[in-house]
Amino acid sequence: MELEFNDDVGTLDRPEKGDPELGPLKLLPGVWRSSGRGWNMIALPFVAESSPLNYRLVVNQYDEELEFALVDKKVPNRGIGTTENGVIVETDQFLAALDYEQRIRQVAADDFPQSGQAGPPAVPIHHEPGLWLLVTNENIDGVDIARLATIPHGDAVLALGTSSEINGVPRIPVVNGLPDGVVQDLENRYLAPYKHFREQPFKGTVTAPEFPGFDPVGPHQLLALANQGVDIARTTVLAVDTTTSTGGIANVPFIVKQANATSMKSTFWIQELKEKDSNGDPKLRLQYLQVVLLDFFPRRDGLPGLVRWPHVSINTLEKDVVDSNTYFKR
Q1: E-strand spans in the chain?
Q2: Model pTM greater than 0.85?
Q3: Considering the domain boundaries, does residue 188 fall inside one?
Q4: CATH number, domain at 199?
Q5: 80-120: per-residue pLDDT in tens?
Q6: How far apart are CA 321 and CA 106, in angstroms?
Q7: Residue-wise pLDDT tens digits, 261-275
Q8: CA 289 to CA 223: how far, in whole Å?
Q9: 113 prior amide bond cis, ω within 30
Q10: Is residue 262 part of a domain?
Q11: Coil, helix or strand at residue 162
Protein backbone atom coordinates (compact mmCIF):
# COMPACT_ATOMS: atom_id res chain seq x y z
CA MET A 1 0.00 0.00 0.00
CA GLU A 2 1.39 3.39 -1.00
CA LEU A 3 1.29 6.06 1.68
CA GLU A 4 0.42 9.64 0.89
CA PHE A 5 2.17 12.33 2.91
CA ASN A 6 1.75 16.09 2.99
CA ASP A 7 4.27 17.58 0.56
CA ASP A 8 4.36 20.89 2.44
CA VAL A 9 5.74 19.27 5.58
CA GLY A 10 7.89 16.44 4.26
CA THR A 11 8.72 13.09 5.78
CA LEU A 12 11.05 13.11 8.80
CA ASP A 13 11.20 16.91 8.90
CA ARG A 14 12.36 18.68 12.06
CA PRO A 15 9.63 20.29 14.16
CA GLU A 16 9.87 23.50 16.12
CA LYS A 17 10.59 22.88 19.80
CA GLY A 18 7.22 22.52 21.54
CA ASP A 19 5.43 22.69 18.16
CA PRO A 20 1.73 23.33 19.01
CA GLU A 21 0.63 21.41 15.90
CA LEU A 22 1.81 18.23 17.64
CA GLY A 23 -0.59 18.86 20.51
CA PRO A 24 -0.02 16.44 23.42
CA LEU A 25 2.91 14.83 21.53
CA LYS A 26 4.89 18.07 21.26
CA LEU A 27 7.39 17.27 24.04
CA LEU A 28 8.27 13.78 22.74
CA PRO A 29 10.66 14.50 19.80
CA GLY A 30 14.24 13.80 20.81
CA VAL A 31 16.06 11.17 22.86
CA TRP A 32 15.00 9.87 26.28
CA ARG A 33 17.24 7.69 28.41
CA SER A 34 17.07 5.66 31.59
CA SER A 35 19.91 3.88 33.39
CA GLY A 36 18.83 0.97 35.57
CA ARG A 37 15.39 2.42 36.34
CA GLY A 38 13.39 0.10 34.09
CA TRP A 39 11.68 -2.95 35.60
CA ASN A 40 9.86 -5.79 33.89
CA MET A 41 8.17 -9.04 34.81
CA ILE A 42 6.77 -11.79 32.64
CA ALA A 43 5.50 -15.34 33.22
CA LEU A 44 6.63 -17.87 30.61
CA PRO A 45 5.76 -21.51 29.93
CA PHE A 46 8.54 -23.66 31.37
CA VAL A 47 9.22 -27.26 32.34
CA ALA A 48 11.32 -27.60 35.50
CA GLU A 49 12.54 -30.98 36.69
CA SER A 50 12.71 -29.77 40.29
CA SER A 51 9.29 -28.11 40.35
CA PRO A 52 5.70 -29.18 39.60
CA LEU A 53 5.04 -25.74 38.08
CA ASN A 54 4.68 -25.42 34.32
CA TYR A 55 5.85 -21.81 34.19
CA ARG A 56 8.56 -19.53 35.51
CA LEU A 57 8.40 -15.87 36.49
CA VAL A 58 11.16 -13.67 35.09
CA VAL A 59 12.03 -10.22 36.49
CA ASN A 60 14.42 -7.80 34.79
CA GLN A 61 16.12 -4.51 35.53
CA TYR A 62 16.96 -2.62 32.35
CA ASP A 63 18.47 0.41 30.61
CA GLU A 64 16.44 2.10 27.91
CA GLU A 65 16.84 4.51 25.03
CA LEU A 66 13.63 5.85 23.49
CA GLU A 67 13.90 8.05 20.41
CA PHE A 68 11.15 10.08 18.70
CA ALA A 69 11.27 11.90 15.36
CA LEU A 70 8.70 13.79 13.31
CA VAL A 71 7.22 11.99 10.31
CA ASP A 72 4.54 14.46 9.22
CA LYS A 73 2.06 16.88 10.73
CA LYS A 74 -0.71 16.35 8.17
CA VAL A 75 -0.94 12.72 7.07
CA PRO A 76 -4.23 12.61 5.13
CA ASN A 77 -6.92 9.95 5.33
CA ARG A 78 -9.37 10.59 2.50
CA GLY A 79 -13.13 10.30 2.93
CA ILE A 80 -16.50 11.70 1.94
CA GLY A 81 -19.67 12.48 3.86
CA THR A 82 -23.13 13.92 3.41
CA THR A 83 -24.41 17.18 4.88
CA GLU A 84 -27.86 17.57 6.44
CA ASN A 85 -29.27 18.82 3.13
CA GLY A 86 -27.86 15.86 1.20
CA VAL A 87 -24.76 17.44 -0.32
CA ILE A 88 -21.78 15.09 -0.68
CA VAL A 89 -18.58 16.69 0.64
CA GLU A 90 -15.01 15.66 1.38
CA THR A 91 -14.40 14.73 5.03
CA ASP A 92 -10.65 14.20 5.03
CA GLN A 93 -8.92 13.38 8.30
CA PHE A 94 -5.40 14.60 9.12
CA LEU A 95 -2.96 12.96 11.52
CA ALA A 96 0.29 14.15 13.05
CA ALA A 97 2.77 11.28 13.22
CA LEU A 98 5.93 10.67 15.25
CA ASP A 99 8.24 7.78 14.52
CA TYR A 100 9.77 6.09 17.58
CA GLU A 101 12.33 3.40 18.32
CA GLN A 102 12.67 1.74 21.72
CA ARG A 103 15.91 -0.06 22.58
CA ILE A 104 16.26 -1.94 25.88
CA ARG A 105 19.27 -3.74 27.38
CA GLN A 106 19.17 -5.89 30.47
CA VAL A 107 21.05 -4.77 33.56
CA ALA A 108 20.22 -7.76 35.76
CA ALA A 109 17.65 -10.55 35.83
CA ASP A 110 16.40 -13.46 37.91
CA ASP A 111 13.70 -16.06 37.58
CA PHE A 112 11.88 -18.62 39.70
CA PRO A 113 12.01 -21.55 39.36
CA GLN A 114 15.54 -20.87 38.22
CA SER A 115 16.13 -21.90 34.64
CA GLY A 116 19.62 -20.68 33.82
CA GLN A 117 17.99 -18.75 30.97
CA ALA A 118 17.50 -15.33 32.58
CA GLY A 119 20.46 -14.01 30.59
CA PRO A 120 23.59 -11.94 31.34
CA PRO A 121 23.93 -8.18 31.85
CA ALA A 122 23.99 -5.91 28.78
CA VAL A 123 22.10 -8.35 26.56
CA PRO A 124 19.45 -6.68 24.35
CA ILE A 125 16.00 -7.84 25.50
CA HIS A 126 13.61 -5.61 23.55
CA HIS A 127 13.51 -3.67 20.29
CA GLU A 128 10.38 -1.86 19.17
CA PRO A 129 9.89 0.48 16.23
CA GLY A 130 6.54 2.19 15.94
CA LEU A 131 4.47 5.35 15.57
CA TRP A 132 2.53 7.72 17.80
CA LEU A 133 -0.37 9.45 16.06
CA LEU A 134 -2.37 12.55 16.92
CA VAL A 135 -5.88 12.68 15.43
CA THR A 136 -6.35 16.36 14.61
CA ASN A 137 -9.92 16.18 13.26
CA GLU A 138 -12.76 13.77 12.42
CA ASN A 139 -12.41 12.07 15.81
CA ILE A 140 -14.44 8.88 16.25
CA ASP A 141 -15.29 7.24 19.58
CA GLY A 142 -13.44 10.02 21.42
CA VAL A 143 -10.05 8.77 20.22
CA ASP A 144 -7.43 11.50 19.76
CA ILE A 145 -4.16 9.50 19.95
CA ALA A 146 -2.91 6.12 18.78
CA ARG A 147 0.21 4.02 19.15
CA LEU A 148 1.35 1.46 16.59
CA ALA A 149 4.10 -0.98 17.56
CA THR A 150 5.90 -3.95 16.04
CA ILE A 151 7.91 -6.44 18.10
CA PRO A 152 10.43 -8.99 16.71
CA HIS A 153 8.68 -11.87 18.50
CA GLY A 154 5.98 -11.53 15.84
CA ASP A 155 3.47 -9.07 17.30
CA ALA A 156 1.81 -6.03 15.70
CA VAL A 157 -0.09 -3.65 17.99
CA LEU A 158 -2.65 -0.89 17.48
CA ALA A 159 -3.64 0.85 20.71
CA LEU A 160 -6.07 3.78 20.73
CA GLY A 161 -6.85 6.28 23.44
CA THR A 162 -6.99 9.79 24.78
CA SER A 163 -4.69 12.52 26.00
CA SER A 164 -5.07 14.90 28.91
CA GLU A 165 -3.07 17.40 30.94
CA ILE A 166 -2.87 17.84 34.70
CA ASN A 167 -1.02 20.11 37.06
CA GLY A 168 1.58 18.55 39.32
CA VAL A 169 2.42 14.93 40.04
CA PRO A 170 0.50 12.20 38.20
CA ARG A 171 -1.47 9.58 40.09
CA ILE A 172 0.07 6.17 39.40
CA PRO A 173 -2.76 3.61 39.26
CA VAL A 174 -2.65 0.43 41.32
CA VAL A 175 -1.82 -2.67 39.27
CA ASN A 176 -2.45 -6.23 40.41
CA GLY A 177 0.40 -8.31 39.00
CA LEU A 178 -1.11 -11.70 39.88
CA PRO A 179 -2.57 -13.85 37.10
CA ASP A 180 -6.32 -13.89 36.55
CA GLY A 181 -7.79 -17.39 36.54
CA VAL A 182 -5.86 -18.59 39.58
CA VAL A 183 -6.94 -18.32 43.21
CA GLN A 184 -5.06 -15.15 44.19
CA ASP A 185 -3.67 -16.27 47.51
CA LEU A 186 0.10 -16.35 47.84
CA GLU A 187 -0.26 -19.51 49.94
CA ASN A 188 -1.57 -21.14 46.76
CA ARG A 189 1.34 -23.35 45.68
CA TYR A 190 0.76 -22.46 42.05
CA LEU A 191 1.74 -18.85 42.85
CA ALA A 192 5.05 -19.84 44.43
CA PRO A 193 7.13 -17.70 42.02
CA TYR A 194 5.15 -14.59 42.98
CA LYS A 195 5.48 -15.44 46.67
CA HIS A 196 9.22 -15.96 46.19
CA PHE A 197 9.76 -12.49 44.73
CA ARG A 198 7.33 -10.90 47.19
CA GLU A 199 9.35 -12.25 50.11
CA GLN A 200 12.73 -11.76 48.41
CA PRO A 201 12.20 -8.65 46.27
CA PHE A 202 14.35 -8.39 43.17
CA LYS A 203 16.68 -5.37 43.54
CA GLY A 204 18.90 -5.81 40.52
CA THR A 205 22.05 -3.76 40.98
CA VAL A 206 20.51 -1.28 43.45
CA THR A 207 22.36 -1.43 46.77
CA ALA A 208 20.66 1.42 48.68
CA PRO A 209 19.34 -0.15 51.92
CA GLU A 210 16.05 1.78 51.73
CA PHE A 211 15.25 0.50 48.21
CA PRO A 212 12.31 -1.92 48.49
CA GLY A 213 12.89 -3.80 45.26
CA PHE A 214 10.42 -4.81 42.59
CA ASP A 215 7.18 -6.28 43.91
CA PRO A 216 5.43 -8.59 41.38
CA VAL A 217 2.14 -8.26 43.27
CA GLY A 218 2.18 -4.44 43.08
CA PRO A 219 4.54 -3.69 40.16
CA HIS A 220 3.42 -0.04 39.95
CA GLN A 221 4.97 0.92 43.27
CA LEU A 222 8.46 1.84 42.02
CA LEU A 223 6.95 4.45 39.67
CA ALA A 224 5.30 6.23 42.58
CA LEU A 225 8.53 5.94 44.58
CA ALA A 226 10.48 7.58 41.74
CA ASN A 227 8.24 10.67 42.01
CA GLN A 228 8.92 11.31 45.67
CA GLY A 229 10.76 14.60 46.14
CA VAL A 230 10.45 15.55 42.45
CA ASP A 231 8.87 18.97 41.85
CA ILE A 232 6.62 18.38 38.83
CA ALA A 233 4.80 21.42 37.44
CA ARG A 234 2.71 19.82 34.72
CA THR A 235 2.04 16.33 33.32
CA THR A 236 0.74 15.32 29.90
CA VAL A 237 -1.02 11.94 30.03
CA LEU A 238 -1.16 9.62 27.02
CA ALA A 239 -3.33 6.56 27.71
CA VAL A 240 -3.89 3.91 25.02
CA ASP A 241 -5.57 0.51 25.01
CA THR A 242 -5.83 -2.22 22.38
CA THR A 243 -9.35 -3.12 23.57
CA THR A 244 -10.62 0.38 22.67
CA SER A 245 -12.57 0.92 19.45
CA THR A 246 -10.81 -0.82 16.52
CA GLY A 247 -7.55 -1.55 18.36
CA GLY A 248 -6.00 -4.97 18.73
CA ILE A 249 -2.93 -7.22 18.59
CA ALA A 250 -2.00 -9.60 15.77
CA ASN A 251 0.49 -12.39 16.53
CA VAL A 252 2.33 -15.09 14.59
CA PRO A 253 0.76 -18.59 14.90
CA PHE A 254 3.28 -19.92 17.43
CA ILE A 255 2.54 -17.10 19.87
CA VAL A 256 -1.21 -17.59 19.45
CA LYS A 257 -0.80 -21.29 20.24
CA GLN A 258 1.68 -21.05 23.13
CA ALA A 259 1.30 -17.72 25.00
CA ASN A 260 -1.07 -15.43 23.15
CA ALA A 261 -0.67 -11.68 23.67
CA THR A 262 -4.31 -10.62 23.74
CA SER A 263 -4.33 -7.05 25.00
CA MET A 264 -2.08 -4.14 25.91
CA LYS A 265 -2.74 -1.06 28.00
CA SER A 266 -0.11 1.62 28.47
CA THR A 267 0.03 5.07 30.00
CA PHE A 268 2.79 7.61 29.35
CA TRP A 269 3.26 10.53 31.75
CA ILE A 270 5.33 13.35 30.19
CA GLN A 271 6.43 15.52 33.09
CA GLU A 272 7.63 19.13 33.01
CA LEU A 273 9.67 19.86 36.11
CA LYS A 274 10.05 23.23 37.82
CA GLU A 275 13.81 22.67 37.59
CA LYS A 276 15.41 24.04 34.39
CA ASP A 277 17.74 22.28 31.95
CA SER A 278 20.88 23.70 30.32
CA ASN A 279 18.75 25.49 27.70
CA GLY A 280 16.65 27.23 30.36
CA ASP A 281 13.64 25.06 29.59
CA PRO A 282 11.81 22.86 32.11
CA LYS A 283 13.57 19.55 32.66
CA LEU A 284 11.55 16.72 31.17
CA ARG A 285 10.86 13.23 32.51
CA LEU A 286 8.87 10.42 30.97
CA GLN A 287 7.28 7.61 32.96
CA TYR A 288 5.28 4.72 31.59
CA LEU A 289 3.30 1.78 32.88
CA GLN A 290 2.45 -0.98 30.42
CA VAL A 291 0.49 -4.18 30.99
CA VAL A 292 0.29 -6.85 28.29
CA LEU A 293 -1.96 -9.82 29.03
CA LEU A 294 -0.66 -13.22 27.92
CA ASP A 295 -3.20 -16.05 27.76
CA PHE A 296 -1.93 -19.59 28.28
CA PHE A 297 -2.85 -22.73 30.28
CA PRO A 298 -6.42 -23.57 31.36
CA ARG A 299 -7.82 -21.54 34.26
CA ARG A 300 -7.35 -23.12 37.68
CA ASP A 301 -10.39 -21.58 39.38
CA GLY A 302 -13.01 -23.85 37.80
CA LEU A 303 -14.12 -21.34 35.16
CA PRO A 304 -13.74 -21.87 31.40
CA GLY A 305 -10.99 -20.21 29.43
CA LEU A 306 -7.29 -19.56 29.91
CA VAL A 307 -5.23 -17.97 32.66
CA ARG A 308 -4.38 -14.32 31.89
CA TRP A 309 -0.83 -13.47 32.93
CA PRO A 310 0.14 -9.77 33.34
CA HIS A 311 3.39 -8.87 31.61
CA VAL A 312 4.29 -5.55 33.25
CA SER A 313 6.92 -2.98 32.27
CA ILE A 314 7.63 0.32 34.05
CA ASN A 315 10.30 2.95 33.66
CA THR A 316 11.29 6.53 34.46
CA LEU A 317 13.34 8.27 31.76
CA GLU A 318 14.86 11.72 31.37
CA LYS A 319 15.21 13.69 28.17
CA ASP A 320 18.79 13.99 26.89
CA VAL A 321 19.06 17.72 26.18
CA VAL A 322 22.27 17.52 24.10
CA ASP A 323 21.15 14.71 21.78
CA SER A 324 17.60 16.05 21.54
CA ASN A 325 18.73 19.47 20.28
CA THR A 326 19.43 17.96 16.85
CA TYR A 327 15.74 17.10 16.44
CA PHE A 328 14.52 20.70 16.27
CA LYS A 329 14.80 23.53 13.79
CA ARG A 330 17.23 26.22 14.81
Answers
A1: 30-45, 55-77, 80-82, 88-90, 93-112, 124-135, 145-151, 155-167, 232-241, 248-251, 260-276, 282-298, 306-319
A2: yes
A3: yes
A4: 2.40.128.20
A5: 888 888 888 888 999 999 999 999 999 999 999 999 999 99
A6: 24
A7: 999 999 999 999 999
A8: 8
A9: yes
A10: yes
A11: strand
